[in-house]
Amino acid sequence: MKAVVFYEHGLLDKVQVTDVPKPEIEPDEILLEVKAAALNRLDLWVLAGWPGLNLKLPHIMGSDGAGIIAQVGSNVTDFSVGDRVAVNPTLGNDSDYFGRRGLDNMSDNFAILGEHVDGFFAEFTAVPARNLLKMPENSLFIEAAAASLVFVTAWHSLITRGGLQAGETVLIVGAGGGVNTASIQIAKLAGAECIYVVGSSDEKLAKAEALGADVLINRHEENWGKAIFKATNRRGVDIVVDNVGAATFATSLRALKKGGRLLTVGNSSGPTFEFDNRLMFGKHLSIIGSTMGSSADYETVMNLIFNGRLQPVIDTIYPLSEGLAALHRLEEGNVSGKLVLTP
Ligand SMILES: NC(=O)c1ccc[n+]([C@@H]2O[C@H](COP(=O)([O-])OP(=O)(O)OC[C@H]3O[C@@H](n4cnc5c(N)ncnc54)[C@H](OP(=O)(O)O)[C@@H]3O)[C@@H](O)[C@H]2O)c1
Question: What pLDDT does 170 receive?
């Protein structure tokens, strides 16, 4: 079967679209005929590799997918061949403290499909049945794939961990990214009073406005820290969503009002940085980190996708055979929302 793989870690020159054997399934798994897969910045981190990431090579890339069940394992009773399913990318189990509480994202052997094991940039993939969610007949594979990872992450961060309340103000650092476009919509749905978005271009900011952003700040045209200070009458915001890290964290902390929360799930511009701790205790701030989401978060947010109250932003759909071109687009960063692959 056709798949987007790499045989060694590195840059995009290590990625190839090639033929690999169709996977065999375990008793608790199903074989998914992938109808749509979506890209995430994570794909590039996995390609680069890090100490402790020991992948079976070649590695099939991609953490997001949806499709039709082509085969069911001998232990699978609640799904059948032909079912249309979305896949929760978080792997977990019921055998440890967090897993038993549905917190797969905190369980001992937490893993992500496409990160630690083979993923969705292929014609078929093997998936544990416990990760499946049946899709309503009228829902689209491209939307289910585009939504899964970023929406469960943003929901868990903003709602479950961040405790966003109606009437609060939210600043989102970055306009067009997958997590950010999800975060804007979730903040709107949760009743945020004002959503400030800092973006790299007017075009991306216009799209953010269409998703629900109220105040738009182009970071190449103005000092966004000062702009937030001014726009909030020198008070700051209740919540900042900052998945950029080194380049923005210090400004994000300053943009919070007293008692504010900085929510983070990533660090696209670098993981290590300094900040002035006096801001933390002097302003009673909290930094709340999280990764992915629980299975309950996944089901909640995907049902909001299926009923149309949230909608993944899809930038471009590529055929699987052009997976490498899509990965180059992702790397360049000139993307509003998600890049999707279809067979
Ligand atoms: N822990 C988890 O569970 C989890 C899950 C998903 C993602 N992540 C991480 O979260 C991060 C975002 O993921 P993604 O898939 O949404 O990535 P993405 O689609 O590539 O988006 C990156 C975002 O960062 C913004 N950005 C980059 N550099 C910036 C800077 N210097 N100043 C301000 N904004 C900047 C971009 O802003 P513009 O759009 O305005 O250009 C864009 O919105 C990644 O680091 C990813 O690994 C973590």
Answer: 98
